[in-house]
User: Fold these one by one.
Assistant:
Number 1:
Amino acid sequence: MAGSGSGPALETIQADGTDGNCVTFVLHDEDHTLGNSLRYMVMKNPDVEFCGYCITHPSESKINFRIQTRGALPAVEPFRKGLNDLMGVCQHVLNTFERSMKEFRAQKEEEMQ
Protein backbone atom coordinates (compact mmCIF):
# COMPACT_ATOMS: atom_id res chain seq x y z
CA MET A 1 0.00 0.00 0.00
CA ALA A 2 2.90 2.37 0.63
CA GLY A 3 3.66 5.01 -1.90
CA SER A 4 0.18 5.94 -3.11
CA GLY A 5 0.16 9.31 -1.31
CA SER A 6 2.08 12.44 -2.16
CA GLY A 7 3.28 13.25 1.38
CA PRO A 8 5.87 11.55 3.57
CA ALA A 9 5.43 7.84 4.27
CA LEU A 10 6.51 8.25 7.90
CA GLU A 11 6.20 10.99 10.51
CA THR A 12 7.26 10.98 14.15
CA ILE A 13 5.40 12.63 17.01
CA GLN A 14 7.01 13.11 20.39
CA ALA A 15 5.08 14.51 23.33
CA ASP A 16 6.41 17.68 24.93
CA GLY A 17 8.58 17.00 27.95
CA THR A 18 9.47 13.44 26.97
CA ASP A 19 12.76 12.11 25.74
CA GLY A 20 13.20 9.84 22.72
CA ASN A 21 12.07 6.69 24.51
CA CYS A 22 8.35 7.38 23.89
CA VAL A 23 7.47 8.14 20.28
CA THR A 24 4.45 7.79 18.01
CA PHE A 25 5.25 6.94 14.42
CA VAL A 26 2.59 7.84 11.86
CA LEU A 27 2.77 5.45 8.92
CA HIS A 28 0.83 6.68 5.90
CA ASP A 29 -0.78 4.35 3.36
CA GLU A 30 -0.62 1.39 5.78
CA ASP A 31 -3.17 -0.71 7.64
CA HIS A 32 -3.51 -3.68 10.01
CA THR A 33 -1.34 -5.86 7.77
CA LEU A 34 1.81 -3.96 8.71
CA GLY A 35 0.59 -2.66 12.07
CA ASN A 36 -0.12 -6.00 13.73
CA SER A 37 2.91 -7.85 12.35
CA LEU A 38 5.27 -4.98 13.21
CA ARG A 39 3.79 -4.70 16.71
CA TYR A 40 4.49 -8.42 17.22
CA MET A 41 8.12 -8.07 16.07
CA VAL A 42 8.76 -4.96 18.22
CA MET A 43 7.22 -6.53 21.33
CA LYS A 44 9.76 -9.39 21.13
CA ASN A 45 12.38 -6.86 22.27
CA PRO A 46 12.72 -7.04 26.08
CA ASP A 47 13.66 -3.34 26.25
CA VAL A 48 10.23 -2.34 24.91
CA GLU A 49 7.82 -1.44 27.69
CA PHE A 50 4.81 -0.66 25.47
CA CYS A 51 4.03 -1.04 21.80
CA GLY A 52 0.65 -0.56 20.17
CA TYR A 53 -1.02 0.88 17.13
CA CYS A 54 -4.37 2.20 16.05
CA ILE A 55 -6.05 3.06 12.79
CA THR A 56 -7.05 6.71 13.07
CA HIS A 57 -10.28 6.29 11.08
CA PRO A 58 -11.57 3.66 8.62
CA SER A 59 -11.57 6.21 5.81
CA GLU A 60 -7.91 7.13 6.40
CA SER A 61 -5.11 4.82 5.36
CA LYS A 62 -2.65 5.56 8.14
CA ILE A 63 -1.74 4.09 11.48
CA ASN A 64 -0.39 5.61 14.67
CA PHE A 65 2.29 3.25 15.97
CA ARG A 66 3.51 4.02 19.50
CA ILE A 67 6.62 2.63 21.17
CA GLN A 68 7.82 3.24 24.72
CA THR A 69 11.13 1.78 25.83
CA ARG A 70 12.78 1.16 29.18
CA GLY A 71 15.78 3.24 30.18
CA ALA A 72 17.63 5.43 27.73
CA LEU A 73 17.03 3.33 24.59
CA PRO A 74 15.54 5.58 21.88
CA ALA A 75 12.21 4.27 20.55
CA VAL A 76 13.45 4.52 16.99
CA GLU A 77 15.91 1.65 17.59
CA PRO A 78 13.34 -1.11 18.28
CA PHE A 79 11.18 0.37 15.50
CA ARG A 80 14.04 0.03 13.01
CA LYS A 81 14.95 -3.44 14.32
CA GLY A 82 11.32 -4.56 14.11
CA LEU A 83 11.08 -3.44 10.48
CA ASN A 84 14.34 -5.22 9.60
CA ASP A 85 13.29 -8.41 11.42
CA LEU A 86 9.91 -8.35 9.70
CA MET A 87 11.58 -7.96 6.31
CA GLY A 88 13.75 -10.98 7.15
CA VAL A 89 10.72 -13.08 8.07
CA CYS A 90 8.90 -12.04 4.88
CA GLN A 91 11.96 -12.89 2.78
CA HIS A 92 12.18 -16.32 4.42
CA VAL A 93 8.50 -17.00 3.72
CA LEU A 94 8.92 -15.90 0.09
CA ASN A 95 12.02 -18.07 -0.40
CA THR A 96 10.31 -21.10 1.14
CA PHE A 97 7.21 -20.58 -1.02
CA GLU A 98 9.23 -20.21 -4.23
CA ARG A 99 11.31 -23.31 -3.43
CA SER A 100 8.17 -25.33 -2.74
CA MET A 101 6.54 -24.15 -5.96
CA LYS A 102 9.64 -25.12 -7.93
CA GLU A 103 9.63 -28.59 -6.35
CA PHE A 104 5.89 -28.98 -6.99
CA ARG A 105 6.22 -28.00 -10.67
CA ALA A 106 9.16 -30.38 -11.12
CA GLN A 107 7.14 -33.18 -9.55
CA LYS A 108 4.14 -32.47 -11.80
CA GLU A 109 6.36 -32.45 -14.91
CA GLU A 110 7.83 -35.79 -13.83
CA GLU A 111 4.34 -37.28 -13.45
CA MET A 112 3.31 -36.02 -16.90
CA GLN A 113 6.16 -37.88 -18.62
Number 2:
Amino acid sequence: MPGPGHKWSRPAEEEEEEEDPVDALVARTGCAAQHHAVQECMAAQQDWRRCQAQVQAFRECMTQRQQQRAEELRRRQSSGSADR
Protein backbone atom coordinates (compact mmCIF):
# COMPACT_ATOMS: atom_id res chain seq x y z
CA MET A 1 0.00 0.00 0.00
CA PRO A 2 1.47 3.39 -0.96
CA GLY A 3 2.54 5.80 1.72
CA PRO A 4 0.60 9.00 2.38
CA GLY A 5 3.03 11.18 0.39
CA HIS A 6 3.03 9.14 -2.80
CA LYS A 7 0.72 9.32 -5.79
CA TRP A 8 1.02 5.87 -7.33
CA SER A 9 -1.74 6.44 -9.84
CA ARG A 10 -2.52 9.74 -11.45
CA PRO A 11 -5.27 10.85 -13.79
CA ALA A 12 -4.20 10.80 -17.46
CA GLU A 13 -4.60 14.59 -17.82
CA GLU A 14 -2.22 15.28 -14.95
CA GLU A 15 0.28 12.75 -16.28
CA GLU A 16 0.42 14.48 -19.67
CA GLU A 17 1.01 17.91 -18.14
CA GLU A 18 3.83 16.92 -15.77
CA GLU A 19 7.22 15.78 -17.01
CA ASP A 20 8.49 12.75 -15.17
CA PRO A 21 11.52 13.88 -13.11
CA VAL A 22 13.35 10.64 -13.88
CA ASP A 23 12.82 11.13 -17.62
CA ALA A 24 14.04 14.72 -17.34
CA LEU A 25 17.15 13.63 -15.44
CA VAL A 26 17.94 10.84 -17.90
CA ALA A 27 17.38 13.17 -20.87
CA ARG A 28 20.06 15.51 -19.52
CA THR A 29 22.57 12.65 -19.48
CA GLY A 30 22.16 11.85 -23.15
CA CYS A 31 21.09 8.29 -22.35
CA ALA A 32 17.36 8.71 -22.96
CA ALA A 33 17.27 6.32 -25.92
CA GLN A 34 18.83 3.54 -23.85
CA HIS A 35 16.49 4.26 -20.94
CA HIS A 36 13.45 4.09 -23.20
CA ALA A 37 14.73 0.81 -24.66
CA VAL A 38 14.82 -0.63 -21.12
CA GLN A 39 11.30 0.64 -20.44
CA GLU A 40 9.96 -0.77 -23.72
CA CYS A 41 11.59 -4.13 -23.09
CA MET A 42 10.20 -4.27 -19.57
CA ALA A 43 6.71 -3.46 -20.83
CA ALA A 44 6.91 -6.13 -23.52
CA GLN A 45 8.67 -8.87 -21.55
CA GLN A 46 7.30 -8.26 -18.05
CA ASP A 47 10.58 -9.71 -16.75
CA TRP A 48 13.70 -7.60 -16.19
CA ARG A 49 15.90 -10.68 -16.63
CA ARG A 50 14.97 -10.79 -20.30
CA CYS A 51 16.09 -7.19 -20.76
CA GLN A 52 19.72 -7.53 -19.74
CA ALA A 53 21.12 -6.32 -23.08
CA GLN A 54 19.11 -3.08 -22.78
CA VAL A 55 20.00 -2.68 -19.10
CA GLN A 56 23.69 -3.15 -19.89
CA ALA A 57 23.58 -0.57 -22.72
CA PHE A 58 21.90 1.93 -20.39
CA ARG A 59 24.41 1.20 -17.63
CA GLU A 60 27.34 1.71 -20.02
CA CYS A 61 25.90 4.98 -21.30
CA MET A 62 25.39 6.30 -17.78
CA THR A 63 28.88 5.19 -16.68
CA GLN A 64 30.44 6.91 -19.67
CA ARG A 65 28.50 10.11 -18.96
CA GLN A 66 29.52 10.04 -15.28
CA GLN A 67 33.17 9.62 -16.27
CA GLN A 68 32.92 12.52 -18.74
CA ARG A 69 31.32 14.71 -16.09
CA ALA A 70 33.99 13.83 -13.51
CA GLU A 71 36.76 14.64 -16.00
CA GLU A 72 35.07 17.92 -16.85
CA LEU A 73 34.91 18.84 -13.16
CA ARG A 74 38.57 17.89 -12.66
CA ARG A 75 39.60 20.11 -15.56
CA ARG A 76 37.64 23.03 -14.18
CA GLN A 77 39.15 22.58 -10.73
CA SER A 78 42.69 22.31 -12.06
CA SER A 79 42.28 25.41 -14.23
CA GLY A 80 40.78 27.35 -11.31
CA SER A 81 37.68 28.20 -13.30
CA ALA A 82 34.47 28.18 -11.28
CA ASP A 83 32.10 29.17 -14.11
CA ARG A 84 30.14 26.67 -16.16
Number 3:
Amino acid sequence: MKQIIRRLARVGDSSQCRSANTNGKNSGLRQSHVREVPEGHVPVYVGEEMERFVVRTELLSRPVFLELLRRSAHEYGYEQRGVLRIPCTVRVFSTVLDSLLSGDGAHSDADLIRYIDCDA
Protein backbone atom coordinates (compact mmCIF):
# COMPACT_ATOMS: atom_id res chain seq x y z
CA MET A 1 0.00 0.00 0.00
CA LYS A 2 2.83 2.39 0.83
CA GLN A 3 4.20 1.87 -2.70
CA ILE A 4 0.87 2.82 -4.22
CA ILE A 5 0.48 5.90 -2.02
CA ARG A 6 4.04 7.04 -2.82
CA ARG A 7 3.35 6.58 -6.51
CA LEU A 8 0.11 8.53 -6.22
CA ALA A 9 2.04 11.50 -4.90
CA ARG A 10 3.95 11.56 -8.18
CA VAL A 11 0.98 11.10 -10.51
CA GLY A 12 0.29 14.25 -12.44
CA ASP A 13 -2.15 13.06 -15.05
CA SER A 14 -4.12 15.87 -16.63
CA SER A 15 -6.74 13.94 -18.59
CA GLN A 16 -10.38 14.91 -18.68
CA CYS A 17 -11.35 15.68 -15.10
CA ARG A 18 -14.44 14.14 -13.53
CA SER A 19 -15.62 15.20 -10.16
CA ALA A 20 -15.07 12.92 -7.19
CA ASN A 21 -18.18 14.45 -5.79
CA THR A 22 -21.71 14.41 -7.05
CA ASN A 23 -23.36 16.23 -4.16
CA GLY A 24 -21.86 19.71 -4.48
CA LYS A 25 -19.04 19.58 -1.92
CA ASN A 26 -15.68 20.88 -3.09
CA SER A 27 -13.74 17.61 -3.45
CA GLY A 28 -12.85 18.01 -7.10
CA LEU A 29 -13.79 19.86 -10.23
CA ARG A 30 -15.86 18.69 -13.15
CA GLN A 31 -14.31 20.06 -16.30
CA SER A 32 -14.88 19.70 -20.00
CA HIS A 33 -11.32 20.75 -20.78
CA VAL A 34 -7.91 19.47 -19.77
CA ARG A 35 -6.85 20.59 -16.31
CA GLU A 36 -4.14 19.59 -13.89
CA VAL A 37 -4.99 17.79 -10.69
CA PRO A 38 -5.42 20.27 -7.82
CA GLU A 39 -2.90 20.08 -5.00
CA GLY A 40 -3.97 17.63 -2.33
CA HIS A 41 -5.93 15.48 -4.80
CA VAL A 42 -5.18 12.39 -6.87
CA PRO A 43 -6.81 11.12 -10.06
CA VAL A 44 -8.21 7.59 -10.09
CA TYR A 45 -9.93 5.69 -12.87
CA VAL A 46 -12.86 3.53 -11.90
CA GLY A 47 -14.52 0.54 -13.49
CA GLU A 48 -14.37 -0.92 -16.94
CA GLU A 49 -15.41 2.43 -18.40
CA MET A 50 -12.35 4.05 -16.76
CA GLU A 51 -14.33 7.05 -15.47
CA ARG A 52 -11.96 9.60 -13.96
CA PHE A 53 -12.42 10.91 -10.43
CA VAL A 54 -10.26 13.43 -8.62
CA VAL A 55 -10.13 12.37 -4.97
CA ARG A 56 -8.79 14.22 -1.94
CA THR A 57 -5.61 12.48 -0.77
CA GLU A 58 -6.78 12.55 2.86
CA LEU A 59 -9.39 9.93 1.92
CA LEU A 60 -6.69 7.45 0.86
CA SER A 61 -5.92 6.57 4.49
CA ARG A 62 -9.51 5.49 5.19
CA PRO A 63 -9.90 1.70 5.59
CA VAL A 64 -12.35 1.48 2.69
CA PHE A 65 -9.86 3.20 0.36
CA LEU A 66 -7.02 1.02 1.63
CA GLU A 67 -9.19 -1.97 0.70
CA LEU A 68 -9.81 -0.53 -2.77
CA LEU A 69 -6.06 0.07 -3.20
CA ARG A 70 -5.34 -3.49 -2.06
CA ARG A 71 -7.80 -4.79 -4.63
CA SER A 72 -6.24 -2.59 -7.29
CA ALA A 73 -2.79 -4.02 -6.50
CA HIS A 74 -4.20 -7.55 -6.60
CA GLU A 75 -6.04 -6.96 -9.89
CA TYR A 76 -3.47 -4.90 -11.78
CA GLY A 77 -0.22 -5.35 -9.81
CA TYR A 78 2.08 -2.86 -8.15
CA GLU A 79 3.95 -2.30 -11.39
CA GLN A 80 1.06 -0.88 -13.39
CA ARG A 81 2.15 2.17 -15.32
CA GLY A 82 0.22 5.33 -15.93
CA VAL A 83 -3.04 5.78 -14.11
CA LEU A 84 -4.35 4.30 -10.89
CA ARG A 85 -7.31 2.03 -11.62
CA ILE A 86 -9.91 1.05 -9.04
CA PRO A 87 -11.59 -2.31 -9.76
CA CYS A 88 -15.21 -1.65 -8.85
CA THR A 89 -18.19 -0.20 -10.63
CA VAL A 90 -18.59 3.55 -10.99
CA ARG A 91 -21.93 3.31 -9.16
CA VAL A 92 -20.37 1.63 -6.11
CA PHE A 93 -17.36 3.97 -6.07
CA SER A 94 -19.62 7.04 -6.28
CA THR A 95 -21.77 5.75 -3.42
CA VAL A 96 -18.72 5.04 -1.23
CA LEU A 97 -17.20 8.41 -2.05
CA ASP A 98 -20.43 10.29 -1.38
CA SER A 99 -20.76 8.53 1.96
CA LEU A 100 -17.20 9.47 2.96
CA LEU A 101 -17.63 13.07 1.84
CA SER A 102 -20.95 13.55 3.60
CA GLY A 103 -19.17 13.35 6.94
CA ASP A 104 -22.36 12.32 8.69
CA GLY A 105 -20.94 9.00 9.86
CA ALA A 106 -24.05 7.14 8.69
CA HIS A 107 -21.90 4.33 7.29
CA SER A 108 -18.76 2.93 8.87
CA ASP A 109 -15.78 1.88 6.77
CA ALA A 110 -16.69 -1.74 7.57
CA ASP A 111 -20.20 -1.13 6.18
CA LEU A 112 -18.74 0.40 3.03
CA ILE A 113 -16.33 -2.52 2.55
CA ARG A 114 -19.26 -4.95 2.86
CA TYR A 115 -21.11 -2.83 0.28
CA ILE A 116 -18.16 -3.17 -2.12
CA ASP A 117 -18.08 -6.94 -1.50
CA CYS A 118 -21.77 -7.27 -2.37
CA ASP A 119 -21.13 -5.70 -5.75
CA ALA A 120 -18.11 -7.90 -6.59
Number 4:
Amino acid sequence: MFFLNSIIKWSPVASRCYSHGKVETDEEFDARWVTYFSKPDIDGWELRKGMNTLIGYDLVPEPKVLDSALRACRRLNDLASAIRILEAVKDKAGPHKDIYPYLIQELQPTLAELGISTPEELGIDKL
Protein backbone atom coordinates (compact mmCIF):
# COMPACT_ATOMS: atom_id res chain seq x y z
CA MET A 1 0.00 0.00 0.00
CA PHE A 2 2.86 2.35 0.76
CA PHE A 3 4.22 1.85 -2.75
CA LEU A 4 0.88 2.74 -4.36
CA ASN A 5 0.54 5.89 -2.25
CA SER A 6 4.03 7.05 -3.18
CA ILE A 7 3.27 6.59 -6.87
CA ILE A 8 0.09 8.61 -6.59
CA LYS A 9 1.80 11.22 -4.47
CA TRP A 10 4.57 11.77 -7.01
CA SER A 11 2.50 11.52 -10.17
CA PRO A 12 2.92 14.57 -12.36
CA VAL A 13 -0.03 16.89 -12.50
CA ALA A 14 -1.31 17.81 -15.92
CA SER A 15 -0.90 21.49 -16.61
CA ARG A 16 -1.31 23.75 -19.56
CA CYS A 17 1.32 26.08 -20.87
CA TYR A 18 -0.04 29.28 -22.25
CA SER A 19 1.89 31.61 -24.48
CA HIS A 20 3.55 34.48 -22.72
CA GLY A 21 4.39 36.20 -25.97
CA LYS A 22 3.63 39.78 -26.82
CA VAL A 23 0.00 40.58 -27.53
CA GLU A 24 -0.49 42.28 -30.89
CA THR A 25 -2.30 45.62 -30.75
CA ASP A 26 -5.07 46.51 -33.20
CA GLU A 27 -2.74 48.94 -34.97
CA GLU A 28 -0.01 46.30 -35.33
CA PHE A 29 -2.57 43.79 -36.61
CA ASP A 30 -3.84 46.24 -39.23
CA ALA A 31 -0.30 47.22 -40.24
CA ARG A 32 0.65 43.55 -40.65
CA TRP A 33 -2.25 42.95 -43.04
CA VAL A 34 -1.73 46.20 -44.95
CA THR A 35 1.91 45.18 -45.44
CA TYR A 36 0.86 41.69 -46.53
CA PHE A 37 -1.55 42.94 -49.20
CA SER A 38 0.85 45.72 -50.29
CA LYS A 39 3.57 43.30 -51.38
CA PRO A 40 4.36 44.20 -54.99
CA ASP A 41 4.87 40.54 -55.92
CA ILE A 42 1.69 39.16 -54.31
CA ASP A 43 0.00 36.56 -56.48
CA GLY A 44 -3.60 35.40 -56.71
CA TRP A 45 -3.09 32.48 -54.36
CA GLU A 46 -1.54 34.69 -51.66
CA LEU A 47 -4.38 37.18 -52.04
CA ARG A 48 -7.04 34.49 -51.60
CA LYS A 49 -5.13 32.83 -48.74
CA GLY A 50 -4.73 36.14 -46.94
CA MET A 51 -8.40 37.05 -47.32
CA ASN A 52 -9.49 33.58 -46.22
CA THR A 53 -7.34 33.87 -43.10
CA LEU A 54 -8.47 37.43 -42.40
CA ILE A 55 -12.17 36.62 -42.81
CA GLY A 56 -11.68 33.62 -40.50
CA TYR A 57 -10.88 35.92 -37.57
CA ASP A 58 -13.63 37.10 -35.26
CA LEU A 59 -13.62 40.63 -36.64
CA VAL A 60 -14.55 42.77 -39.60
CA PRO A 61 -11.39 44.14 -41.24
CA GLU A 62 -10.69 47.86 -41.01
CA PRO A 63 -11.15 49.98 -44.16
CA LYS A 64 -7.38 50.49 -44.53
CA VAL A 65 -6.84 46.72 -44.67
CA LEU A 66 -9.62 46.31 -47.22
CA ASP A 67 -8.19 49.23 -49.21
CA SER A 68 -4.87 47.41 -49.39
CA ALA A 69 -6.56 44.15 -50.42
CA LEU A 70 -8.59 45.89 -53.14
CA ARG A 71 -5.43 47.54 -54.49
CA ALA A 72 -3.80 44.11 -54.61
CA CYS A 73 -6.78 42.90 -56.66
CA ARG A 74 -6.25 45.78 -59.05
CA ARG A 75 -2.52 45.02 -59.39
CA LEU A 76 -3.50 41.45 -60.26
CA ASN A 77 -6.28 42.66 -62.57
CA ASP A 78 -8.68 40.44 -60.59
CA LEU A 79 -12.09 42.12 -60.44
CA ALA A 80 -13.81 38.92 -59.31
CA SER A 81 -11.69 38.74 -56.16
CA ALA A 82 -12.39 42.40 -55.40
CA ILE A 83 -16.13 41.79 -55.56
CA ARG A 84 -15.78 38.61 -53.49
CA ILE A 85 -13.93 40.62 -50.83
CA LEU A 86 -16.83 43.07 -50.64
CA GLU A 87 -19.34 40.22 -50.47
CA ALA A 88 -17.34 38.48 -47.73
CA VAL A 89 -17.15 41.66 -45.68
CA LYS A 90 -20.89 42.20 -46.04
CA ASP A 91 -21.49 38.63 -44.90
CA LYS A 92 -19.00 39.02 -42.05
CA ALA A 93 -20.81 42.12 -40.78
CA GLY A 94 -23.82 39.88 -40.30
CA PRO A 95 -26.75 41.38 -38.45
CA HIS A 96 -24.89 44.63 -37.74
CA LYS A 97 -26.48 46.62 -40.55
CA ASP A 98 -24.42 49.76 -39.94
CA ILE A 99 -20.96 48.20 -40.50
CA TYR A 100 -21.13 47.41 -44.23
CA PRO A 101 -22.47 50.85 -45.27
CA TYR A 102 -19.72 52.46 -43.17
CA LEU A 103 -17.05 50.36 -44.90
CA ILE A 104 -18.44 51.19 -48.35
CA GLN A 105 -18.51 54.88 -47.42
CA GLU A 106 -14.87 54.74 -46.30
CA LEU A 107 -13.82 52.72 -49.36
CA GLN A 108 -15.77 54.80 -51.90
CA PRO A 109 -12.76 56.90 -53.02
CA THR A 110 -10.71 53.73 -53.53
CA LEU A 111 -13.54 51.96 -55.34
CA ALA A 112 -13.97 54.97 -57.66
CA GLU A 113 -10.21 55.26 -58.27
CA LEU A 114 -9.86 51.56 -59.08
CA GLY A 115 -13.10 51.29 -61.06
CA ILE A 116 -14.60 48.64 -58.77
CA SER A 117 -18.38 48.42 -58.48
CA THR A 118 -20.05 47.17 -55.32
CA PRO A 119 -22.17 44.01 -55.45
CA GLU A 120 -25.22 46.25 -55.01
CA GLU A 121 -24.30 48.38 -58.02
CA LEU A 122 -23.87 45.23 -60.08
CA GLY A 123 -27.19 43.82 -58.88
CA ILE A 124 -25.67 40.55 -57.72
CA ASP A 125 -26.70 41.08 -54.11
CA LYS A 126 -30.26 40.12 -55.07
CA LEU A 127 -29.38 36.74 -56.59
